[in-house]
Every structure is written in C-alpha cells, then in structure tokens.
Design a protein that fits this description.
The protein has 277 residues and is an alpha/beta fold. Helices cover 26% and strands 21% of the residues. It has helices at 3-11, 16-28, 35-44, 82-85, 133-138, 146-156, 196-205, 227-234; strands at residues 54-56, 75-80, 89-93, 101-103, 124-131, 143-144, 163-168, 193-194, 208-213, 238-241, 254-259, 268-270, 272-276. It starts with a helix and ends with a strand. Keywords: Plasmid.
Length: 277
C-alpha cells in the first residue's frame, strides 16, 4: 500500500467506499491501480472498515539484527554522501530472509508461488494472535499446539477465514540479546515456533492465508528438518517471521496489512507489516 493511502486511512475511520474512492483518485493522479487490484480490495474488505489505531509490527533492520545463521543481517556502503555529492544513497547487500520478512511458497517447495505471484488480497486480512507468552517463558522451545488454537477459539470465536495467525511469544524483548537466537554450546538454537500438527490443523480444518511469528522462524529453534516450513509453504501459504509489537494489538479483531516485496521470482523478502484496529 502506498504511503499516501496509509496516511489517508490513518486520518479517518474509513468505509470501504471511501477507501476505493481514494484508490480511484490516486489512479487518476498517476498511481495506477488495475481493475483487478480494486476488485481484490473489494473482495477482502468487509462492508465497512473503521479503525483508530495503527501498529507497526516490523522490526527495524540493522546490520546487527539477529539472523538464523548468525551472520550480519546485511552489508551497506555509501555510494553517494550529502557532503560530497549533495545526496545520500546506499548500496545494500542482503539475502531475502532477514529482519521482518516473508517466506513465499517457493521457499520450501519445488514449484510454489514466488513472492510476486501471491495474490495481493492475501496480504490484507484478519489477524488472529495466539498468546503463548506464559508457555514460552518457561520453555524456550515451546511450539504452538492445536490445543492453543482451540483455547483461543473458545475465548475469541473461530479463527476467521482468510486470516493470518500469529504467535505472540514475547521474544522481541530479547532481540538485542543472545537469547533471541538462543544458541547453545552445541550450536543448537532455542526459540518458540509452531508445531507441525498445528500447521496441519490450520491447513485442513481452517481457511488461513498466513502464519506469523515474533521469532526467527515459523519452526522452533531446534528444528533439523523444518516440517512447518515444508507443510505450510508447500500448501501454497505464506509465512512472516520476526514480527514485533503483537502485544499492542487485540488478540482478535485487528486487520493485518502485510506489505510484501515484489521481487520477480523471489522466495521472500523484507517487508513492512502494519496492524489496524
């Protein structure tokens, strides 16, 4: 979503009609939106959408941000500086899966969709936040279980169709410490994730678009074979890793606006993730 659009929706409590009229106006002004894009927006949003809060679920990416492999998140160099050239411009070198980022189906499947091929309507959807902070506080290797989903639904109702289901483990509080990766003396990582049985449950018993975590991986730290990645991405769904501020949104009732990158053939990539409610 363009910055202008975000600013507009933040200014007021918008109806779908108001949102679409802005989109049409933007298109007339040069920000081209196709008919299919407008149709996708209409399909995603309910008859009326209103909100007064916007929460940034995106970690600030810096070279020292924790990575799964343990190396720098990216390398940067200034090609131009204001003092010398009258402008600032950096060159960045990073792989697709650093910071708050997306996993596209092709990341763990032979012929799944790349990040640019995922329909845009899947990136604007209800957000269901599964709070397992108590469990994770006592067990760094905790995995979200099917019973956690059922307990959530007992309290908040059935997970909406087309939702993104996100784990709230509380791990962002450790992002500047070694505990975020949790690497032990044998090189094994320790942080929470989803259990493969939960992935199966959400694939077979619910109609869910995305899976999100506030840790480095939708699989838990000690994984060796990444079963959740293979199951979830292999089913044509996407993942979002290294979310933050999930404790600032309601467990039910928020909408996620997931600004996925659009690299041709990309297996994922860093993005900007917002939640509104």
């Amino acid at each position: 979503m363009c910055d202008v659009c975000v600013m507009e929706v933040v200014k007021g409590r918008l109806s779908r009609r108001g949102f679409l009229s802005r989109a049409v106006a933007s298109a007339a002004g040069g920000a081209v939106l196709s008919a299919s894009a407008l149709s996708a927006t209409a399909n995603v949003l309910p008859e009326s959408v209103s909100f007064s809060n916007v929460i940034d679920l995106t970690q600030t990416l810096a070279p020292d941000f924790p990575t799964f492999e343990g190396g720098p998140a990216f390398e940067e160099s200034y090609e131009y500086t204001f003092a010398k050239d009258g402008l600032n411009l950096k060159t960045l070198h990073y792989h697709e899966h650093v910071g708050t980022h997306f996993d596209a189906p092709i990341h763990f499947s032979k012929d799944g969709q790349s990040i640019d091929e995922i329909p845009i309507e899947k990136f604007v959807c209800p957000l269901a936040v599964i709070d397992v902070r108590d469990q994770a506080a006592n067990n760094a290797d905790y995995r979200v279980m099917p019973e956690d989903i059922l307990a959530y639904e007992q309290q908040h109702g059935r997970i909406p169709d087309r939702a993104c289901v996100a784990m709230l483990s509380g791990w962002p509080q450790y992002v500047e410490t070694e505990k975020y990766r949790g690497e032990d003396s044998k090189g094994v990582l320790h942080f929470p994730g989803f259990h493969e049985e939960t992935a199966k449950f959400l694939i077979n018993e619910r109609s869910v678009y995305g899976l999100g975590v506030d840790t480095l991986s939708i699989d838990y730290g000690p994984t060796k074979d990444f079963p959740v990645h293979y199951l979830w991405l292999g089913s044509g769904r996407y993942g979002i890793e290294n979310l933050t501020n999930l404790d600032q949104v309601p467990l039910a009732g928020a909408t996620i606006i997931a600004g996925a990158p659009k690299f041709k053939g990309g297996t994922g990539g860093p993005g900007r993730i917002l939640a509104v409610y």
